[in-house]
Amino acid sequence: MEYIVGVDIGGTFTDCVAMDEQGAVTLGKALSTPDDFAVGAVDALGDAARNLGFVGADELLGATKFFFHACTVADNTLITRTGPKTGLLTTQGFGDTLLVMRGRTTEGLTESEAFRASTQSKPDSIIPRSLIEEVAERIDYKGSALVRLEAEEIARAVQSLMDRGVESIAIALLWALANDTHERELADFIRHHHPSVYLSLSSEVAPYLGEYERTATTAFNAYVGPKIAAYLRRLREVLQSKGLRREPLVMQAYGGVLGIDDTCKKAVGTIESGPAAGIMGSRDFGEQLGVGNVLATDMGGTTFKVGVIRDGAVEKDHKPILMRYQLFLSKIWVESIGAGGGSIVWIDGESGLLKVGPQGAGSSPGPICYGLGGAEVTVSDADLILGYLNEECFLGGRMKLAKEPALEALKEKIARPMNMTVAEAASGIYRITNSHMSDLIRRATVERGYDPREFTLFAFGGAAPVHAGRYAAELGIKEVVVPLTASVHGAAGLVGSDVIYDYGRSERLSVPADLERVREIFTGLVERALASLGAAGFKESEMKIVRSLDIRYRQQVHELNVPFPPGISELTEQDLETIYGRFDEVYELLYGAGAGYREAGKEIMAFRVVAIGELHKPRLRKYPIEKNRAEAALKTERKAYFEEARDFIPTKIYDYGRLAPGSEISGPAIIETPITTIVINPNDRATMDDYYNIRMVLAE
Amino acid sequence: MVKHPFRENLEVESAADRQWLRCANCGRRLCALGQDWKAAALRKVFSPAKAGPLMKILEGRYLLEKIYCPSCGVLFNAEMIEEKHEA
Amino acid sequence: MLNGNIDPITFEVLSHRLHQITREMGIALERTGGTVTTTQQHDYNASLYRPDGEIMAAGETYGHHVVCAGFAVKRILESFGEEEIFPDDIFLLNDPYLAAIHNPDVYIISPIHYQNALVGWSATFVHVSDVGAITPGGDSPDATEIFQEGFRIPGIKLVERGKLRKDVFNTITHMTRQPDAVGLDLKCEIAANNVAKARLQAMYRQYGPELMNSVSAEMIRYTETVLRKRLGEIPDGEWRETLTIEADGPCRLVLALRKQEDRLIFDFTGTDPQVRKGINLPFHGTFGFCFGAILYSIAYDLPKNQGVLKPMEVIAPKGTLVHVQFPGPISMSTTSSGFGVGFLASSVLMQMIATSEKWRKEIVAPSASHRNCRHSGVNQYHRYSAFINMAHGAMDGNGARIDRDGVDSGGSYMSCPNVEWMELQYPLLYLFRRHAMDSPGAGKFRGGVGVESAHTLHDAPEGKIRGVAYGVAGLENSGHGMFGGYPGAPSVMLLMEKTKVNELLASNKPPTQIASLGGQERILPYCNFELNESDVLYMRVASGGGYGDPLERDPALVQKDVANSIVSLDAARDIYGVVLQEPGLQLDLAATRQLRTKMRQQEIDGGEASVP
Q1: At how many degrees (to 10) do helices C63-80 and C283-295 cross?
Q2: Using 50, 70 and 90 to split pLDDT, how confident is the model at A3?
Q3: Could you tell me which residue, B56 or A540, shows the higher pLDDT?
Q4: C545 chain-A contacts, CB cut-off 8 A
Q5: In B, which residues are within 8 Å of C551 by CB distance?
Q6: Which residue in C32, C296, C424 is closest to A117 by CB distance?
């Protein structure tokens, strides 16, 4: 028996999923070990191995066909600013580009914060000004060298940085996307004289128009590169010493995996790979359930995240904002807000209005009911008081919750000052929280021209299933799915991975574009893609290539990405005409009929190629269904609050572990699982499907 | 002796009958609230270049006026004023 | 604080959602807009209004346009009457003598109906590419009357019951130098308004007209109540500020703010008479800029609506720079007297909140904005553009705060295009674009550093392009210091003619130092000008004013400023009294303390501190 194994290292936990040849899934979990992440990975593997009946990790690794991996090393390095001393070589006269940041830094701020001049800020530069060295050279928009880079200048600039003790160097020159000669000359010199320095070239990492984003991406890459490289090489060593015979494959921000050496060339691509894996998992999962439109929501202790899958395609962002910098990076679009079980509830001193978040109590001290010293009322405290959470049996019995202190705090800090009953206060907190979630989801869908009612909602993370029934209902969504693998959906997503290479470059062509030139540019990108997939061991029949164009109306800034049908057949004039028409259609879909001013003309701005090497994975295993009324799983009954009754009413409590495929439960009811609680509202119905997922159908 | 701030280093002191402006650093009373506190303070003027090398362009048209507490020398204000208004 | 019959949770949820609609409108404008000002500089506004034109939810950008678009709604109601306003109509207005502030800021106003009743309005503005004025792009320094400043529409129906009126659309775009671009601008505004209409109607469907109407009325009442309460808590007083703008002679703006309990009276009496140059501001513009200043100071966290206007009064004598009379020119109003009024209003409000223990933490040193310029001409692809905008406004250094430095180079909602983006479509070559060392106003907390840049022609088929110089001219622009902080360096625009830039490039030397360029330089007043081959245009935007005494600045921060090339070694010593030893910029604390004591003593004793 061979296994497909996924290991996802998160901030707190390391998760492992092992899928066998019949599609049966076994889980493993361990605490993450930030001092040496590989240790936690082996622990989680060991947990899964033992759940499979093995003695330890070695046996599982020895039987592993594919090993997929997602980790937070890059994210961690950026958040804690523990990267190596990194320098930047850039064009003379433009050394402040990374610090000027093109001005705008109000992204992601709330309405109040955006207006509050007294607290505005910019992030501390990822590379300090004192480690930015300007180089006497200048290339223009045509790629002509107006000021040629001379040998003495190369030596001087590099020595200047080396004298300051840098271990990693980013090179980002103006117009390197049109002519990369100067960047390569600098790189060659550094490789020759200082071979241990990690190098990151903008013409390789992000060959797109726009020096700020390109420099930022290159700088981020240089900053996280060395640590990623060291970590992945160590991981490979440890796993192979324990029996893994294959090359570990690493999840990228855009949802595909790459081998370790390819990953190290563009380490910044591993940013947010865990959430990427989760969304890819939702997509595969949706496919297996026959659902093409999915809203993947994840609510934990501090953050609420949403990703969008439309017609089986995952929404991507080619210019994501990360840590307040805008980058050129293909990334799965995940939007998040500070809203989770630990979000703090407070009363605004002046307005007297009830507010939830964005400050959170984290996991320590955490909600009051955790008993770890938390003193602020949180969303989880309200959930407990509302009767949704079980004091005695939280997290499968691993934790007990203390209701009394939470209740006292709610009465004193919230209910009494607001002149509300306990029920009114707790349910008000619940409603506000849910409206924040639904607002975020509404933004995610509606801004793209999608109607949320056409989507199925997946609920992951410890807190989502407690709230999902409501925030989905607010959007008119009809079905909510809580998957079996909800607690480890990052790792679960990994096992469904394909190897994906993502290439692109900026090139501006007026529409109608010269067919020969279009073919030429795509040929270059496709050849690279085919070579990469070939080197990774794929046969032509296992390769899928998707070409696409970024197009905009002339005079506009924003581009839309429009794909060709998959394949590498030679493009015809008709193919281009179809794409141009498709752009007009998508544009109108987003902005309304008549919004596009076609007379202004169009331009192609960039060419992209996504090359997929499909890995053969078994389908998730189905289990036989037997309709039943779930009595066997009924644990107890307790009072819980529901808006329909405006009161606490007797509610049936079920044990997930004793449900079987086919079980049917009508709301009001609560299902308790080892990692979460599923609240089924009155008039809603839940069933366990043939994959052990809980599917809730919401009332009209 | 109710007081509230007026600006950095200056505060308003409310005595029984009137309100006074005084130095928040040393307590020196300058004048009654509503009167010209700048006239009651220590006032100096300098060449604009004192405010920085890029201020040379203001020379001949403006002066840098600095206003201090007459007792403890703490700085109350620094401002460019038109030179023609200087006696 | 809320009216008894509205559930506070519902109020919270719905008021937040109304604000979200304005955000979505803004995103639609950015995505579909045609000019850099719209798509990158966020020079637009998108807001929602009640049926009578009162502000329901203000968009996040310029406050002054929120107010003026509200006036525009009222004018449309007056001209057309409710009987002539049908569902899915859309109106256009850009007359500065009625509601707009200058012709290029074109308002698109859309009534929103639900079940055939008028339930609200949405309105947007963008700065369109051209309006057919004597100078391309709209800002016309040579105009002496409004008649020379482009098409001026008092209110016209652009879309009739959902159908675009092609005759109106074509007539308007036809009057401009760039019908395509202006067409795109108008269409993007229509798109944004359609977004607002769909969302608001959906909310009415979901929650019902009764609840929605009560919530929007309550939002206004609530904001007014809280704002009045805040004002009541601040001591009464009077605060003043003046600003002189150079336009063929000094033009003086004067403001006295009087706070009487919960009323704010902005009195501009004493302001100079209007001039025959387009820097004059219409009254509603003056009103709007005062509103903007309040929004960003003591109302930042309140639902932004008509309630903010209720405690305000504005006194602006007719025929002055801040209350222009017909047919005075106004094409450059927003960026000159407009920002001037914004500065005055901010300054007096900051002085006001300095008297409140509770509010003083919101102090930010105010800025009197910057010089700016725009080009027009034929690019390297032989295509004409009336509106080549470098959008440097996004890179001003912001004012220092009471407890921290000002944000460097921007940090607001505006953004500036990449140099590469500009060079790709315009016949320009940037020589540099960087932080202007020593530009921030010194202080215990320094102002944010501003940006300086220079460019020359590159591959210009006609060997030249035209430019127009506007903004706040004179030496009183840029950041003003507070309470001991020094002002930021003035914002300047310098035209250097017949420089050595091409020779330098030919000898393989990067032309990145102004001093090495030679040529004839002149500071540009409000004017049209030409950029010819071998000319260089140098610009430095505004830099933030400092807060508090420079001699009290933490020496470690000064050391960091020098390491980051924001403050020079000389300025570190001469202004801050900080002694740094090379190599390595070692901080000598003892020497610093000594030097600072000496410097203060010498100032007070009447002499200058000696400069070694």
Answers
A1: 140
A2: very high
A3: B56
A4: none
A5: 75
A6: C296
* A560 vs A580: CA distance, rounded Å: 11
**What is chain A's alpha carbon radius of gyration, rounded to the nearest angstrom?**
27
Q: What angle do CA A396, A399, A400 make, to 5 degrees?
A: 115
What's the pLDDT tens digit per position in C386-435?
888 887 888 999 999 999 999 999 866 778 889 999 999 899 999 999 99
For an interface test with C, the pick among B58, B75, B76, B80 (most C C-beta atoms closer than 10 Å) comes out as B75
Residue A108 — very low, low, confident or very high, per pLDDT cuts 50/70/90?
low
Flag whether B32 is in a domain: yes
> Cβ contact (<8 Å) for C487 and B9?
no
What is the DSSP track for B11-80?
EEEE-SS-EEEEETTT--EEEEBTB-HHHHSEEEEE-GGGG-GGGGGGTTTEEEEEEE-TTT--EEEEEE
Q: Is a pLDDT exceeding 60 seen at residue C194?
A: yes
Residue A448 has pLDDT above 50, yes or no: yes
**What is the per-residue pLDDT for A587?**
83
Would you call C9 and A99 a contact, using CB atoms and an 8 Å cutoff? no
Residues 6+ apart with CB under 8 A from A523: none
Report angle CA C269, C275, C280 to the nearest 5 degrees.
70
Calculate the average pLDDT of chain A.
90
In a mutational test of the B interface, the residue from C363, C370, C402, C603 whose CB has the highest number of chain B CBs within 10 Å is: C603
Q: Which domain holds residue B59?
A: 2-82
Question: Which of C480, C482, C488 lies closest to C448, judged by CA?
Answer: C488
**Sole residue written with tokens 């004025």:** C133
Per the CB < 8 A criterion, the answer to whether A622 and A690 are in contact is yes
Tokens of A685: 């119905």
Q: Is B36 a domain residue?
A: yes
Cβ–Cβ < 8 Å for C497, C535: yes
HSE value, Cβ hemisphere, 13 Å, CA-based, for C6: 25
Number of domains in chain B: 1
In angstroms, what CA-CA distances link A211 with A179, A324, C34, C240, C486?
14, 16, 21, 44, 33
Distance CA C596, CA A193 (A): 47
Note whether residue B87 is domain-resident.
Answer: no
Residue A628 makes CB contacts below 8 A (sequence gap 6+) with A660, A662, A663, A664
Calculate mean pLDDT across residues A682-687. Answer: 96
- Pairwise pLDDT comparison (C168 vs A491), residue with the higher score: C168
3-state DSSP of C112-136 = EEECCEEEEEEEEEEECCCCCCCCC
Q: Specify the 3-state DSSP secondary structure of A503.
A: strand
Q: Does B80 touch chain C (CB under 8 A)?
A: yes
What is the DSSP track for C462-526?
Answer: TSEEEEEEEES-SSS-SB--BTTPPPPPPPEEEEEES-SHHHHHHTT-----GGGT-SEEEE--S
Other chains touching C, judged by 3 or more CB pairs under 8 Å: A, B
- What local confidence, expressed as pLDDT, does residue C611 receive? 30
**Residue A351 scores a pLDDT above 80:** no
By the 8 A CB rule, do C318 and C380 touch? no
Tell me the β-bridge partners of C385. Answer: C377
Mean pLDDT across A479-507: 84
DSSP state of A135: E
| Interchain pair B8, C484: CB under 8 A | yes
From B80's Cα to the closest Cα of chain C, the distance in A is 8
Q: Which residues pair with A67 in a beta bridge?
A: A5
- Residue C609: band (very low, low, confident or very high) from pLDDT cuts 50, 70, 90: very low
User: What are the E-state strand segments in A422-498?
Assistant: 456-460, 479-482
Instruction: Yes or no: say if C119 and C200 are a contact pair by the CB < 8 Å rule.
Output: yes
A217-243: average pLDDT:
95
Rounded to two decimals, the pTM is: 0.92
The answer to the question of residue B52 being in a domain is: yes
Query: Which tokens in the block code for residue B39?
Result: 């006239």
